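Retro notes, item 3 of 5
We never archived the inputs for the F7E complex last cycle. Fixing that now. Sequence and ligand:
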Amino acid sequence: MSKSVIITGVTGQIGSGFARFLLNEGHEVHGIIRRTSSFNTSRIDDVFSHPKLKLHYGDMTDGSVSNLICDLKPDYFINQAAMSHVAVSFDNPEYCFDVNATGVIRCLEAIRRHSKHTRVLQASTSELYGDHVAPQNELTPFKPRSPYAVSKLAALASVVNYREAYNIFAANSITFNTEGPARGATFLTRKVTLAAARISLGLQKELRLGNLCSKRSWTHYEDQLDGQWLVLNADEPDDYCIGLEESHSIQEFVEIVFSKLNLDWKEFVICDPRYFRPTEVDHLEPDCTKIRSKLGWKPKHTFQQLVDEMVKHDLDLARKEKILLDNK
Ligand code: F7E
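Structure as it came back at the time:
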């Protein structure tokens, strides 16, 4: 049966993936986009004219999203909107909290007061675990180490509170790093694959990075999406860790990507203090026993497949860029 779904953050990597997936399944998708002077809809260009996609201007920092919830009373509310860059949150903590925490409470209030049947999925994050020893699962204590993580912890706790206090179906996906060819270029993986591809064709000379020692679990966005959809459709609302149960250091990731392009990373990577964070999170790696055993989640992509897909995508982009340059 066709459902109505509000997706915030629909122009992002996973929000756009959700829109595509839900439209394919025959659902009606209401995507929230922020007004900007530059184009920000490239990730949904392919479904832009789909008859079941409606885009609405809105922002988590005001009443626009809650108003839409009141008007539409959707079956599902998927919150992918966030000020999601951990490093930037140190420079702009107040805005970060407004979007990531207060913004979520605004929406939960609208659901509690006007649309109690709506099922809520909050995209939470492994950043909550901070420097707690890996692997982390749903029982691991939270130790946030950035304004981003603090704001996301407030949102997670609010979702749990609304679930318990008002009997709303509200669930958190505790999402480990989510990657793919549509990942934003300021996040580590995409910054590296874009740079390495350009370097291999002589379009770029160096790559400046910060801390190479931290370890992350990088998961394909389609596997994250599968997991989050299972969480949203479970019999009972609950919180689940989602991610590949393996981790690699930043240096390992860099080495793998450069070697796929027959490059020695040490010749091109420069350590730049600008990219270090005031407090770092050293090692994030999930234990996903709960979602595997309760909801049957299983990732379809290995880490190597994810890297291969990103490298191939960015090499194709770099080749196109070079052809344009050569024909100038
Ligand atoms: O950094 C190190 C950096 O920015 C990964 C967000 O989606 O996942 C993401 O947060 C690691 C960190 O992701 C650079 O210090 C070194 O240790 O790709 P990232 P993140 O901070 O893990 C979580 C789950 C979220 O929820 C967030 O929204 O790489 N690193 N050099 C660098 N990172 C960046 N961005 N740029 C560098 O030059």
